[in-house]
TrEMBL record:
<dbReference type="InterPro" id="IPR008502">
    <property type="entry name" value="Prolamin-like"/>
</dbReference>
<dbReference type="Pfam" id="PF05617">
    <property type="entry name" value="Prolamin_like"/>
</dbReference>
<keyword id="KW-0732">Signal</keyword>
<protein>
    <recommendedName>
        <fullName>Prolamin-like domain-containing protein</fullName>
    </recommendedName>
</protein>
<feature type="domain" description="Prolamin-like">
    <location>
        <begin position="22"/>
        <end position="92"/>
    </location>
</feature>
Amino acid sequence: MIWPGLATQTPSPSNIKFIEECKGRLHFGCGKQIVDTLIKEWYVSDSCCFQLVSIGESCHIALVNSALSGPLAKLNKFEALNKSAQIWNQCVEFSQYISPAASPSIEE
């Protein structure tokens, strides 16, 4: 018997491809920081924030949902999704104030 609300939907092949493309654009260390932050009190580094914002919110959401239906299935989904939104919002806010532009050269 399948209980409503507890079944996980099998991702379509196009969703799987999208998730794999998103994973490929996010450095492993950055993904680990995000997972650590979802699981416990942690932080996402500045460079990881820039990387997260650069892959886009749809990738972030897809990766988090994929993790919550797989390796992080035991987490409270409501709390994890709220933390995920906080991570995204903080990274977007941070990236608006600090540009990842190259540092000025010595000749300037």
